[in-house]
C-alpha cells in the first residue's frame, strides 16, 4: 500500500504545480507569448452596421463587453435583448424610413462569458516582421445557433493604437469608432477589430505616469499644517477655559497677540515702505 500512497501524493503535487491557464471566461486580462495584456479599462462598446434591403434597412448592432457579460436593460423587453451571460452579441432590427420595427428581427449570441469546458477563450499574439507587438487576437466561443446548429464564436482583434483609448464612438458619420465590424463568415464566425492603446506592449522598466488622484508633498504639507494649527487652537482654548475661565477672544491662546496682529502687520508694512523710500532719496541736509 505504501507505493500506491507515494504515487498518489506525487500525482497530487504535480497537479498543484500546473499553471491554471484554462479559465472559462475572458475577463479583460490575458497573456500570450510572454506578453501580458490588460483591457480592464475598456467598457461595453458597440458598432452599428447597415444593410439595405429595399424597401427597408437592416441595422445590426454588434456589442461586446471585454470584462464581463453584456448589461441587461430594464427598459427593454427580455425578448429584444441578448441572452443573459452573453459577452459578444448582435441584434438586428428592420427600419422603415426613420422608424424601426417594434421588435428586433434577429439576435445572435457569438460569445458567452462562461464557456463550456473545452471551449475556453483562445489568445494569439500578433507581431510584425521585426517581432514588434501589433496586438492580440481573442477568440470567444458561444452557443449553437440556427437550424444547422452551428456553434458561434467571435474573434476580437485588439490592435495597438497609442492614439485611441478604445472607447471612441462613431461621431457625425466620420467612422471614428474604435470598434469595427470586419466579417461574419460561414454563419458562425464573427470578426471584430478594436483599436486601443491597451493592446500595445509595455516597454520593460517603463515608469507609469503619475496618478492624477494622488496628493503631492505640498498638498500633504498644507493639510498637516492646517491640522496642527487647528489642534493648537482647540487645545489652547480648552486650557484657557478650564484653567482661567476665559470667554470670547480670551479663549484663544495668545489672544493679545492675535488681537494686535493686524496693527503689527500694518506697522511692519509702513516701516518697510519708509525704508525703501528713504534708501532711494538723496543724502545731505533737507531744507526746512
UniProtKB/TrEMBL annotation:
The chain crosses the membrane at residues 217-239. It is found in: Cytoplasmic vesicle membrane; Golgi apparatus membrane; Mitochondrion membrane; Preautophagosomal structure membrane. The keyword Transmembrane helix applies. Residues 22-202 form the MRH domain. Residues 1-32 form the signal peptide. Belongs to the ATG27 family. InterPro entries: Autophagy-rel_prot_27, Man6P_isomerase_rcpt-bd_dom_sf, MRH_dom. It comes from Orbilia blumenaviensis. Coiled coil: none annotated. Keywords: Autophagy, Cytoplasmic vesicle, Disulfide bond, Golgi apparatus, Membrane, Mitochondrion, Protein transport, Signal, Transmembrane, Transmembrane helix, Transport. GO terms for biological process: autophagy; protein transport. The keyword Transmembrane applies. It holds the Pfam family ATG27. PANTHER family: AUTOPHAGY-RELATED PROTEIN 27, MANNOSE-6-PHOSPHATE RECEPTOR FAMILY MEMBER. It comes from the Eukaryota. GO terms for cellular component: cytoplasmic vesicle membrane; Golgi membrane; mitochondrial membrane; phagophore assembly site membrane. It is a single-pass type I membrane protein; Single-pass membrane protein. This is Autophagy-related protein 27.
Amino acid at each position: 500500500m505504501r507505493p500506491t500512497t507515494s504515487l498518489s501524493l506525487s500525482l497530487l503535487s504535480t497537479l498543484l504545480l500546473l499553471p491554471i491557464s484554462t479559465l472559462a471566461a475572458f475577463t479583460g486580462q490575458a497573456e500570450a507569448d510572454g506578453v501580458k495584456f490588460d483591457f480592464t479599462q475598456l467598457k461595453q462598446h458597440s458598432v452599428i452596421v447597415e444593410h439595405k434591403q429595399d424597401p427597408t434597412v437592416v441595422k445590426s448592432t454588434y456589442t461586446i463587453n471585454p470584462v464581463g457579460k453584456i448589461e441587461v436593460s430594464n427598459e427593454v423587453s427580455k425578448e429584444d435583448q441578448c441572452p443573459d451571460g452573453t459577452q459578444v452579441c448582435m441584434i438586428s432590427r428592420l427600419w422603415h424610413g426613420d422608424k424601426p420595427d417594434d421588435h428586433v428581427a434577429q439576435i445572435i449570441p457569438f460569445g458567452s462569458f462562461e464557456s463550456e469546458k473545452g471551449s475556453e477563450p483562445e489568445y494569439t499574439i500578433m507581431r510584425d516582421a521585426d517581432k514588434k507587438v501589433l496586438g492580440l487576437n481573442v477568440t470567444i466561443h458561444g452557443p449553437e445557433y440556427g437550424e444547422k446548429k452551428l456553434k458561434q464564436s467571435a474573434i476580437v482583434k485588439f490592435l495597438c493604437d497609442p492614439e485611441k483609448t478604445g472607447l471612441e464612438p462613431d461621431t457625425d458619420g466620420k467612422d471614428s469608432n474604435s470598434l469595427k465590424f470586419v466579417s461574419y463568415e460561414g454563419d458562425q464566425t464573427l470578426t471584430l477589430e478594436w483599436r486601443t492603446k491597451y493592446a500595445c506592449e509595455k516597454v520593460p522598466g517603463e515608469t507609469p505616469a503619475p496618478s492624477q488622484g494622488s496628493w503631492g508633498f505640498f498638498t500633504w504639507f498644507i493639510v498637516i499644517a492646517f491640522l496642527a494649527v487647528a489642534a493648537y487652537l482647540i487645545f489652547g482654548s480648552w486650557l484657557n477655559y478650564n484653567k482661567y475661565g476665559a470667554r470670547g477672544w480670551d479663549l484663544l491662546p495668545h489672544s493679545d497677540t492675535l488681537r494686535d496682529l493686524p496693527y503689527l502687520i500694518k506697522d511692519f508694512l509702513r516701516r518697510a515702505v519708509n525704508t525703501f523710500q528713504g534708501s532711494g532719496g538723496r543724502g545731505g541736509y533737507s531744507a526746512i
